[in-house]
Structures are given as C-alpha cells and as structure tokens.
Amino acid sequence: MVISEKKNPLVGSMTVPGDKSISHRSVMLAALANGTTTIEGFLTGEDCLSTIDAFRKMGIQINQSGTCVTVHGKGMYGLQQAIEPINLGNSGTTTRLLLGILAGTPHHYCLYGDESLSVRPMDRVTIPLTEMGATFDGNDQGRLLPLSVRGRKLQAIEYTLPVNSAQVKSAILLAGLFAKGTTKVIEPVQTRDHTERLLKAFGATVNKTGDTIAIEGNQTLHGIHIEVPGDLSSAAFFLCAAAMKQDSNITMKDIGLNPTRTGVIDVLQRMGATIEVHVTRYIGDEPVGDIHVQGSRLHGITIDGEDIPRLIDELPIIALVASQAEGTTVIKDAEELRYKETDRIQAVVDTLSNMGVTIKGTKDGMVITGQTTLLRGGEYDSYKDHRIGMMIAIASLCTNEAITLTNHECINISYPTFFTDFNELAQ
Ligand code: S3P
User: Active site annotated at which positions (predicted)?
Assistant: First the structure.
C-alpha cells in the first residue's frame, strides 16, 4: 500500500472502534454467565473475532451483526468439548485468558495460532495454572503453541506476577473462578484492570487490597448488557499524530479512560502537548469521555517504571512522537515489548533508523534523539504487527516522500477502519 505524504494538520472529531481488551473479556465472561449478554460497540477486529470463533467451537451460541453481539451463556460449566483444534490467529489476549478458563473445565482442548503467536511465551500462564492443577503439553516443553490443555478441579493459589502482565493476571483470576478456595494475585505494578471491573459487572465478587486481588471460587456470573467504549490504544495513534503535527486540532470522542490505560495522555502532557480530557459518563465501572489535543511544541522525557503497563501498546507511536520532539526521550523497563506481536523494540528501532531517526535500542527500551523533522519515505514493512503498521502510516505526516507499507493487512487485527479514519482527519 502506498501512503502519500500528508502535509495538512489533523482536524476534526471522531470516535474509534471498540476497546479490544474489553471486547475480548465481554465475550469470555458472557459465555460463562447464566443467560444472555448483549454487547454494543464490539470491536470487529480479527483478534476479537478469534475469541468469538473459539467460543462457538466450544458450543456457545453467539450472534454477531456488525458491532452488536449477543452471547447465549451456558454457565460456568457449559463449555463443550471442541471436536477440532482451536485456531486463535494472532491473538495473545484470547490465548492467555482462554487458557485460564479452560484450565477449570472438565475437557481437553488443543490450541494453535499463526506464526507470530506460535513464538510468544505461554509458560507465563501455564506455570501458575499448572500449580492450580491443570495439565498442559505443547511445543518447546509446553512453553509455546500448539498447546493442549486438560482442565481439572483446580486449587486456589497465591501468586506474585513475575511480569507486569494483565493477561497473566486475568488468566489466573479466571481460573480462580473455578478453583476451590480463594485465589490471590499480587501485582507489584498495577496493570489494566478490565477483568476485575467486568467480573464485578457480571455479578462476581473480586476484592482488591493494596496490590493483592482476591477471587473466591465457585461463583456464578449473570448475563448483562455491555457498551464497549472506543479503544484508547487505537485513538492514541491520532492523539500522538495531532500532538506532533503543527496546527492540528482534534477531539477523540467516547473513548475509554480507565486510569490503568491512560499513560499515553499523561506522557503527551509531560512532553508539552496541549491536551484536555473530559469524562462524560461511566459505562458500568469504566470512565468514558472525550480527549482534545492540539499540535504542540514537544520535548523529550523519560518513560519508565509504573508508566509502562499504562501505555505498553502505545510505545511504538510514542517513539515516533519522540523523534519529532526537542531533546532526548528515554524509554526503560519495557522489555515486555520484545514479546508482543513482534519484537517491538527491534521493529521500532530498525524502522525509525531507516527513516533517518537517531534511535538506539536497549535491552528494555530505547533512546530517541528528537527533532528529526523530515523523515525518509520509501518502503517499510509492518512486521505483520498492527501497531508497527499504524506507526509507519502516521509517519507519513513527517515526510515529503511517499511511504510504501508492506503487510498492511495486519492493521485489521485491532483497527479495521484505520485508513478511512486517518484520511478523514488528515485531509
Ligand atoms: C492486554 C494486555 C497487554 C497488551 C495487550 C492486551 C489485555 O498485554 O499488550 O495488547 O487485554 O489484557 P500484557 O498484559 O501481556 O502486557
């Protein structure tokens, strides 16, 4: 795909498709609930469709019409034995959360995924789930897909997260729903808490004290109505684009503003962007609102520690913003980026250096020297990673040459209407 250089600032207001994390969890909890759940604003990106597909293969009736989804839940033990292996495509969230659920079922399932998913570490969930009683077998001594999981009667555990991962936390909490006793997850650094919030919305009791989240086994969930807010991780591409492009002025409307996700807003503010946030309503327990940002003079900052889980998926686009800011930006404590859809440290460093940016990769982050105002066009590959693909597309605002993006289809994973929306804002 050829993306011509974009000279104009971003102007206008729009919303973005539904939140990916909430869409996945809505279907999963709905399948385990008694009764019907209706979901509005569901993200129809490929990852969330993988979740729907997986639950259909386990006998759950799910009707989808555009962004409206109806799930006919069958209760905690209603999943059926699948008659064939389940393909989870590119979706790490589906795989890890599903492993937590399947660990507590009385069945045997085989899971596999695409090339990228097949090299992403799964032992981060199979280790605690094995401790709870489930058994796994898979590639590379059970570390990788394809994986088979045999559910068992589970025992509660107390587990301190060795990586700051909401997926791992969620997998254990979901398994905890099936376990005898109280499962406790200790997260030294707060990660996104959509699972906890949604579990409560479905009628479960989840308690948080300090950094410990506790869930009792043998709970019952009840079907509900859910509205999914716009995905801040998708909106972030345009928020960042507008902040770095002079004279831009945009409002992203109806976006999820859960504080465990808003790191990108804080970072843009710290870099000097004029950015305002208005919480307009709550959908269930999730704050939702509008974000207004103007093109601004930006400067480099350090992004590390507790910042990281609050903006983990936004780091590629933040790195591009840093290339336009004055001074140096240092990103640390983000080794997790190496285990995403691709090694995002390597992908960002290679791509931005080919565009002419002074950028250095480190073990757990990158150092970007700013104010490379004119990037080099040419041919760039998405590494089949949606967030790298969108970063490359946004770079068309900072160049005088066309950009050819190869493997752009992966953007459908999280943001199927990305190019239409981008063209509308940057006419
Ligand atoms: C997600 C959590 C994050 C994030 C991913 C979605 C989730 O992964 O990168 O895109 O929905 O729980 P980790 O929890 O592994 O960091």
Answer: 313 (proton acceptor)
